[in-house]
Amino acid sequence: MKKIFTFFAMAALSMGLVSCGASHELTIANLKAAIDGETAANAKYVAFSERAEAEGLPEIAALFRATAQGEAIHISNHQAALQGLGVADYTAVAPEFTVDSTLMNLEAAVVAEQDESATMYPKFIEAAQQEKADAALLSFNYAKDSEMDHSRLFKEAIAYITTPRSQATVYYVCPKCGYIYAGAAAEACALCGTTQDQYIVINAVLPVATEETEVAEGTEAPVAAVADAKTATEVKK
Question: Residue 109: what pLDDT?
Answer without folding.
Answer: 97
